[in-house]
Design brief:
Blueprint lengths: L2 E8 L7 H11 L3 E5 L10 H6 L3 E5 L7 E5 L4 E5 L14 E6 L2 E7 L9 H20 L6 E6 L23 H11 L3 E3 H5 L17 H4 L6 E6 H4 L2 E7 L13 E7 L1
Parallel strand pairs: 1-2, 7-8
Antiparallel strand pairs: 1-12, 2-4, 3-4, 5-6, 6-7, 8-10, 9-10, 11-12
Helix pairs in contact: 3-4
The chain binds one DNA strand through loops.
DNA sequence: ATGGTAGTAAAACTA
């Protein structure tokens, strides 16, 4: 049996985060790193520093906003951009990238944040999960080794956000968006982190820059997720949040989330 | 109740 160590990280600007990503990749023996919010168009993607580490790359970005990437020391096969078989919104391509690594299907998404529950973009966010489920149905089988990971912009349960009693109208915690996310998960996936850490509070992957000392005060959200099908969940070894890079100089507002599988 | 910070890319937008 082989192993697959996968991680997900919202960089909030990949070019501003190379001082964190490159050493972290070398030190953590990663088989696949899924990145969101690269904020760079393809022609300006920093390819060389990754190639210098012996990494393969797949990416799709747009100017200033969004952008997703996959980094791996292995061959990245079957690369697909966006919702290939559905009509595209303008920025869909830079929010969803899929591939196959070591026989495992991987879908890396940066789900739209939604702006406000009464904003049209929030309805697009809800629809986004339905379109993703349609993509799962069309492309994959529940028996496949499939991982869906990324910045989902949803805290699934009260335990996944600080002060949940104040967040009922937040675009990342509103009942409708939690249900939309869960419906997509129930296609045939499970939340790897909760599988290994049921009921564990204060486990967050995002701390807003604008809240002073948010990490120290525990004012975070668990909105980045790794979800996997049964064949992978049956062989999951580990799933944990690495918050150390959030404490470094010029950090992203998100942490790394990792999972180890036997494949 | 509001604003707080950060990245991109060149003033304002997104988060």
């Amino acid at each position: 049996m082989d192993k697959l160590r996968l991680a997900t990280f919202n960089t909030n600007g990949i070019r501003a985060r190379l001082h964190i990503i490159l050493p972290w990749l070398s030190e953590n023996n990663i088989d696949c790193l899924c990145i969101q919010e690269t904020k760079v168009q393809d022609r300006d993607f920093p390819v060389e520093p990754f190639h210098d580490l012996g990494m393969h790359l797949a990416f799709k970005g747009q100017k200033a906003y969004n952008g997703v990437a996959i980094v791996s020391p292995h061959d990245i096969e079957d690369i697909r951009i966006g919702f290939d078989d559905q009509p595209h919104e303008v920025d869909d391509a830079a929010r969803c990238i899929s591939c196959k690594i070591q026989g495992v299907h991987i879908v890396n998404t940066y789900v739209p944040q939604g702006k406000a529950v009464d904003h049209p973009d929030f309805q697009k966010k809800l629809l986004w999960f339905e379109r993703l489920e349609a993509l799962f149905n069309k492309r994959y089988h529940k028996e496949d080794m499939l991982i869906w990971c990324g910045d989902m912009n949803v805290a699934p349960e009260s335990i996944d956000v600080y002060a949940p009693e104040k967040k009922a109208n937040h675009v990342c915690f509103h009942e409708s968006v939690r249900n939309a996310f869960k419906k997509c998960v129930h296609w045939g996936l499970a939340d790897c982190f909760r599988l290994l850490h049921p009921g564990e509070p204060n486990q967050y992957t995002f701390y807003d820059y604008r809240i002073p000392k948010a990490v120290e005060r525990g004012l975070g959200w668990r909105i980045d997720h790794i979800l996997a099908t049964k064949p992978l969940c049956a062989n999951i070894q580990n799933c944990f949040i690495d918050i150390e890079p959030r404490k470094m100089e010029k950090p992203s507002d998100h942490t790394f989330l990792l999972a180890d599988f036997k494949i």
